[in-house]
Amino acid sequence: MDIVCLDMEGVLVPEIWIAFAEASGIPELRRTTRDEPDYDKLMKGRIAILKEHGLGLAQIKEVISTIEPLDGAKAFLDELRTLTQVIIISDSFYQFAMPLMPKLGYPTLFCNTLEAAPNGEITGYRMRVQNSKLTTVKALQSIGFDTIASGDSHNDIAMIQASKAGFLFKSTDAIKAQYPEIPAYETFDELLSAIKGALS
After folding, report:
1. Number of helices and strands in the chain (H, E)
2. Contacts 24+ apart (CB under 8 A), 194-197
3. Per residue in 19-33, pLDDT tens?
4. Where are the domains of the chain?
């Protein structure tokens, strides 16, 4: 029995932190897991920058309310879910991701939780589990699923490599060059075709 595990940001929706960096005029916030493999280092840096500029959850959510899925993302998900079960496994946070779920047709979402003060200042974050994407894929395999995975960033590589089939999607040239053995696609039609080919 197959289950497809997809990353969210950069695959189905634009990168939230990049959108916020552009809206806030803070270029340092453009860094994502495409640029920094160490997620803890990345998040601590983001939290420090937000604190320095007096920005918090309210300002980020305001930007998120303007974000739309990537062109074709919802149609891709809709068709994929007629073929097999699908889970979005993201290192983002429920506070960021939930407002986007209606725009994607309410897919199943596994992600993390931000810690915030009453005034909305982001003070920390709590991972659902360590190495959440790989851990989730391994857990699904332990209960009888064959996983097919796709993502765009460094933090997606482990779940892609651990799955029976895996694909890079809209990734960077540097990541594609680092992992030439992983098929890489740029359009939802290509990715859907590849997943269909991998379904047993």
Report:
1. 9, 7
2. 194/165, 194/167, 195/4, 195/80, 195/83, 195/84, 195/148, 195/150, 195/165, 195/167, 196/83
3. 999 999 999 999 887
4. 2-12+69-112+127-198, 16-64
Q: Which residues are catalytic?
A: 7, 9
**CATH architecture observed for domain 16-64:** Alpha-Beta Complex (3.90)
Partner residues linked to 3 by β-bridges: 85, 147
Q: What is the DSSP letter of 145?
A: P
For the CA atoms of 24, 26, 29, 35, the dihedral, rounded to the nearest 10 degrees, stands at 130
Instruction: For residues 183 and 167, give the distance between their C-alpha atoms in angstroms, rounded to a whole number.
Output: 5
Are 13 and 73 within 8 A, CB to CB?
yes
Report the predicted TM-score, pTM, of the whole model to 2 decimal places: 0.91
Distance set, CA 128 to CA 10, 50, 59, 108, 132 (Å): 21, 23, 24, 15, 7
